[in-house]
Amino acid sequence: MSQANANLFAALRAAFPHHLDAIAIETDNGLNYSWRDLERATAMMANLLKSLGLPEGARIAVQVEKSVEAVMLYLATLRAGYVFLPLNTAYQSAEIEYFVGNAEPAVVVCSSKNFGWVSKIAFKAGTQHVFTLDDNRSGSLLERAAHCSDHHQVVLRQADDLAAILYTSGTTGRSKGAMLTHGNLLSNAQVLKDYWGWQPGDVLMHVLPIFHVHGLFVALHGALLNGSKMIWMARFDPKRVIEKLPEATVFMGVPTLYVRLLAEHGLNRESTRNMRLFVAGSAPLLIETFVAWQERTGHTILERYGMSETIMLTSNPYKPKDGKRRGGTVGFPLPGVSLRVQDDAGQPLPAGEIGGIQVKGPNVFKGYWRMPEKTKEEFTADGYFKTGDVGKIDPSGYVTIVGRSKDLIISGGYNVYPAEIEGYINELPGVAESAVVGVPHPDFGEVGVAVVVRQPGMPLDPDHVIATLKAKLANFKIPKRCFVVDELPRNTMGKVQKNLLREQHQHLFY
Ligand code: MLC
Ligand code: AMP
User: Fold this and answer.
1) H or E, element range at 163
2) More exposed terminus of the chain, fewer Cβ within 10 Å: N or C?
3) pLDDT confidence of 410, banded at 50, 70, 90?
4) Paired residues of 132 in beta bridges
């Protein structure tokens, strides 16, 4: 008897429409890719990877601009049975050096403009193969793949085999690689297909980056598993989105995208007339945005909640029979997800009380890459994952997130860990210590502000602090403002009172 193949690619491939010459992806610069193109190109890239003789479980690290070929590379990695490791294009050399050193990828794929420094880091870390891939259909990866066969048998995988590693920054030390399996990704995609009522004829407008859960898994898998066409935008441009919206039925975005769309006059009932579903997540959606969207378009945004370690956890209902979409809440645990709220002593809390959110389900990751101790710490004895988010469940089952126990800033849907930024600031000459806090921001939801203590008698220029950070860190992590002070507020235990700093600066951008 032949063994069933739990490879995620096999399930996605099985959902391709019968008519393989139909358009699968239409890009913003006028290119059309058919389902047959996806089938052939992923086979060729998978054959290229196979020809390299990579070891079982090899990681393929990818830092490239958004393109359809980058999606093909992701799918080819699954197809060939290797592990995909996407990296934010904003990461600079110190960040890439850490990820590559930690994950030890067998293959690194980067933009040709970064080949010099990325290949140096990769070869130093023992990577054997470095390819380039650009967003104009060029690069050594495609040149090599062009010589490979377009027939490829999808490699057999078990549900528990690794499919991807997503780095999420650590609250204290270094980033942790969340290990996601084929089973995690497929089960979550199947649940969402049903819960969000994906239907024949749906067209997804894809505007998010493809190196995080939202754009790479939730949006992409949703369309592929439904055999749905995608309208593909390499960058989020609100005017262009509104122009193309009448051709789409499903849109997914972080709250900043909704805020920016609302600033456009063209957003109205007419331009959204064919839309079936607007999904928001990755950061809290303000109730004002939720209400303004309803008033302007007549559509009710569906807010959901998830994270790199778990993919999607909760969702507001899509179908009226499941309930109403309530602004300010993230809805119900998805089918198959157990979610509970506990106090600090590990006791379950009754409805309405605020505590730490813990989850269990087929979507919950396998653990942190090469960090068994850290993994153990983040799970309870009975197998629940501690999300680090703080929330409550109301008597009718809606989950609301009220804060985070992890010291994390979510800015425009990207995570910024204060500890990482403070580490860099504290190394600067003239700095005694620093605190980075998140404050409300009308566009990004929240942004980082640095409060830096100078060493007595040493000059310290806040602009210099910012300029120095810009040279070292991904741009979205750079504090939007920097203040130089003589001391930080502390409590009687000597702990920095970040809440006071947040209060002090809460109106900086409002
Ligand atoms: C850009 N900038 C940001 C920023 N994005 N600053 C803070 N936070 C951000 N998110 C800054 C840059 O540093 C730069 O500053 C300036 O804005 C212009 O940069 P840009 O690259 O041109 O910006 P733009 O294209 O406008 O990008 C904004 C954005 C982008 C909202 C489109 O941030 C974005 O795509 N966010 C989506 C993130 C995402 O997909 N998250 C999902 C995570 S998954 P300067 O000073 O250099 O000019 C997850 C799980 C789940 O969380 O539940 O989904
Ligand atoms: P990441 O590590 O990038 O996967 O970010 C996951 C975090 O984003 C979660 O732990 C939450 O703190 C936050 N998040 C995701 N969706 C929502 C949401 N709808 N509302 C509030 N926070 C969210």
Assistant:
1) strand 162-168
2) N
3) very high
4) 110
Dihedral through CA 427, CA 429, CA 434, CA 438, nearest 10?
-80
Best substitution site from 211, 213, 241, 256 to test ligand 1's pocket, by max atoms within 8 Å of Cβ?
Answer: 256
List, in sequence order, the alpha helices (H) in 112-230: 115-124, 140-145, 182-195, 220-225
Please, what sign has the CA dihedral across residues 412, 445, 261, 195? Answer: positive
Q: Is the CB of 448 under 6 A from ligand 1?
A: no
- The burial of 492, by beta-carbon neighbours within 10 Å (0-12 exposed, 13-18 middle, 19 or more buried), is given as exposed
Whole-angstrom distance, CA of residue 479 vs CA of residue 4: 50
What are the residues whose beta carbons fall under 8 Å from the beta carbon of 459, sequence distance 6 or more? 430
Closest CA to 128 of 49, 70, 33: 49
In angstroms, the Cα distances linking 135 to 23, 74, 83, 111, 296 are: 19, 15, 22, 8, 35
Q: Give the nearest ligand 1 atom to 90 CA.
A: 21
Ligand 1 centre from 246 Cα, in Å?
Answer: 25
0.70 surpassed by pTM = yes
Number of domains in the chain: 2
- What pLDDT was estimated at residue 173? 60
Q: What is the pLDDT of residue 169?
A: 74
Task: Read off φ and ψ for residue 245, nearest 5 degrees.
Answer: -55, -40
Extract the tokens encoding 420.
């990482």
Q: Which domain holds residue 427?
A: 408-505
Residue carrying structure tokens 């019968």? 18
Domain boundary among the residues 136, 156, 189 is at 189
Of 189, 204, 220, the residue at which a domain comes to its end is 189
